[in-house]
Amino acid sequence: MDKSVALYLFHDGNYLQSYEFFGAHIEDDHVIFRLWAPNAISVSIVGDFNKWDPKLSPMHLLSQSGGVWEAKLSTDLVSKGTLYKYCIEQIDGELAYKADPYGFYSEVRPNTASIIWPLDYHWHDSKWCSTRESAIGSPAPMNIYEIHLGSWRTHQDGLFLSYRELADELVPYLKNMHYTHVEIMPLMEHPFDGSWGYQITGYFAPTSRYGTPQDLMYLIDQLHQNGISVIFDWVPGHFCKDAHGLYKLDGTNLYEATEHPQWGTMEFNYNRPEVVNFLISNAYYWFKMYHIDGLRIDGVASILYLNYGYDNEWRRNSEGGNTSLEAIAFLRKLNSEIFKYFPYAIMAAEESTAFPQVTWPVDKGGLGFNYKWDMGWMHDTLSYMETDPFVRSHFHDRLTFSMSYAFSENFILPLSHDEVVHGKKSIVDKMFGDYNQKFDEMRLLYAYMYTHSGKKLTFMGNENAPFIEWRYYEELEWFMLENEKHRDFHNFIRDLNQLYVDEPALWQEDHSWDGFQWIEPDNASQSVIIFRRMGKKPEDDLVVIINFCPESYPIYDIGVPKNGTWRLIFNSNADKYGGSGEDIVKKTKANEKEGFHNQPHKITIVLPGLSALIYKREPEKLVPAKTKIEKPKKIDSSKKPLAIKDDKPKPLTKTDPIKKK
Questions:
Q1: pTM, entire model
Q2: Which residues form the active site (predicted)?
Q3: Domains 3-115 and 142-505 share a fold
Q4: Is 513-617 a CATH 2.60.40.10 domain?
Q5: Of the listed 183, 215, 221, 350, which one is catalytic?
Q6: CA spacing 20 to 30 A to 24: which of 162, 466, 471, 521?
Q7: Is 12 a residue of the active site?
Q8: Domain spanning 3-115: which CATH class is it, in words?
Q9: 557 catalytically annotated
Q10: Domain locations in the chain?
């Protein structure tokens, strides 16, 4: 692209491929460097190639560029693998050594230099890419496994697995457990392990903790070839104040607006077109160059609200409200641009308030995301599960309230890493009761989650029911699977994942009342809920019964929508999952003359305490039509026999119709 055009688009906020212009790029016999630093007095390139001397490789301002600096260095001097930084003489005269904001690769922490690195890779996921394009608009299951790569598994000495080693172990694990998507906590370069990747210094550089950019591409490639979608966590709301990062790049607030009052980080300045361009170009980059399938946008509420994190300060916009008009415009532009070029994209907002129309189209007044985390469902449901079952009747609305707004947005139900850190306890430890009862309760929680309307997300390790919180500095406690209770729960999640994928009623109509019907929502006295999940075909309907109380009922009537035989297809209380193994009705015929729960028919079952049961109607058996068989005629031997043709009859093929007499 012509330089003048590239610069115009960049300063206008509309250069989606700005990573092709800025940063360090190998071109024939030289490497070209470009940096936006409009308030810098001077800029030079330093690195191991010139002993980090700022006098040896100066950059020059491009004419009428609006503060864009450029330099060309011979490949005899710099090449693939060369370490470099920008030495910026800031507006106050101080020298700052900065990593490249558009750098593609970085040193392993604690070192902070950028590395010249081309992004060549031969992909093998063309079939996957073609399939996701053709499937746009088609309903599909979404069961997301959220993962922190550094602590999922490690080597025996505690060192990280590489991206390629993770491909060898993670891909078969996800397939065996029947997860459909993996969501990876932020992989953009970050200096501090304890930030989990949410405080970024290199937005275009995948962290070097686990290998090279090509190694990450290989991991994504392998996931795609095995039918698993890839979502990245992305943080466009704030960045850390580390000296080598974006913070006061040229000595002024260039990328930043103000300091976040809670996190000690800097909020992005959405008033600057160049900053908006940087962020949207970054999102585009991960889809284009790394073939990802989606982004989960972190901390959307902190982006939207001017007074987020301010306890006693009311900050207003020009219209008198407390939302950031510039941030809203940024989010709408982000989603519009991404869906224009990547219509299959998952753009999921972690938005923790009741901000309206998050997943509505931009032209309908929405923010333009296609999914939103349902934080309300998560908080209400976990609060309910922490309550003594014998007093849950007083808190029944916490269980059912989510369905009053379930279709106002396209929701994902999350049990994420945020729920198992900072003293909140692990998921199983949140459950009410003694050791054994906690497992019964956790099976109920997940059965309710998987049968509730909405897509699913669960954090790594939850499938093993650990009793300690997640610790980023060591691998998950896989040894707990040697314990029968934990192994049974692990198998429960595997089978529940398989059921979810196999049953269209659990995902085809996730975002409308066409997929959900209450059968009995108000039985607070017994803490029982009953509902129907529906797919596009009537024969896919499921009836879900969940008893959140330890009380068992040997005779329990349930209204069902259709006559016929209803078969139990899933039982959270089964012996193989560590339940009581109580003998319950595997099949039951509906009473065709008597209805119940405002349904035309009813079935009678055994309902164990603390159990979730899922019934499905058996298909009606087709009785073949009877054909009349004619008796052979008697042959009069006195008459001359019929002439017999010489040619033999041809045998029937699969396409030949069989004619009845």
A1: 0.92
A2: 298 (nucleophile), 350 (proton donor)
A3: no
A4: no
A5: 350
A6: 162
A7: no
A8: mainly beta
A9: no
A10: 3-115, 142-505, 513-617
